From TrEMBL:
Superkingdom, natural source: Bacteria
Similarity annotation: Belongs to the YfgM family.
Protein's name in the database: Ancillary SecYEG translocon subunit
Naturally occurring in which organism (per UniProt): Enterovibrio norvegicus DSM 15893
Domain annotation Ancillary SecYEG translocon subunit/Cell division coordinator CpoB TPR: ranges: 15-201
């Protein structure tokens, strides 16, 4: 490192360094600060968007629960605007439930099919199980059983097999129902399923 003997030489060296590097320093500072500001702005916008989505979701769910005449229309608009988002899938589940309560089973099935394509495996599994119930109510038993086959996570085995047993019993296949109920109990002991199994004709 050079040792400067006079103040003038030191000042001149600083000026020379600034001439050589000043633009890069300023540009680096501007880019750094701009990036930091941009990132903070992006995060704030994301947070605002999440809060707005949450508030809109809550309003539509409350409208559905209250039986508001325009609730279904509002829910459909929300789902359309936010396709692929978790809130849209959750609202589709709520809308399907509301449609089942008013016996609009075909419309409910449409909502549940939309949720099945969710990236969230839990939401997809919930939709498949509920869709199987709806299809069984529509007497589409084969379709209902195929929907249950889509749920492969072990945590769902007890519930899926119980529903499979119910559907098989509705079709009159007592042997298949017995097998399904036994599989359900093997996955998780449940007195209700045990009662269904015990009440099956021999």
């Amino acid at each position: 490192m050079d040792v400067y003997t006079t103040e003038e030489q030191q000042v001149e060296a600083i000026k020379q360094w600034w001439r050589d590097n000043g633009k890069a320093v300023v540009l680096g500072a501007v880019i750094g600060l701009g990036g930091l500001y941009g990132w903070r702005y992006f995060q704030a916008e994301q947070e605002t968007g999440r809060e707005q989505a949450s508030e809109a979701y809550t309003q539509v769910v409350n409208a559905l629960a209250a039986g508001d005449e325009k609730a279904e229309e509002q829910a459909a608009a929300f789902i359309s605007e936010r396709q692929g988002e978790a809130y849209a899938s959750l609202l589709s589940l709520q809308l399907a439930k509301s449609l089942v309560e008013t016996n609009e089973l075909v419309k409910a099935a449409e909502q549940l099919r939309m949720v099945q394509s969710s990236k969230d495996e839990t939401l997809s599994a919930i939709a498949s199980v509920r869709l199987a119930r709806v299809e069984a109510e529509l007497k589409n038993y084969d379709v209902a059983l195929k929907e249950l086959d889509k749920v492969t996570a072990q945590s769902w085995t007890a519930q899926v097999e119980e529903l499979r047993g119910d559907i098989e019993l509705r079709q009159g296949d007592t042997a298949a129902a017995r097998s399904a109920y036994a599989a359900s109990i093997a996955a998780a002991s449940n007195p209700v399923v045990q009662m269904k199994l015990d009440n099956l004709p021999q």
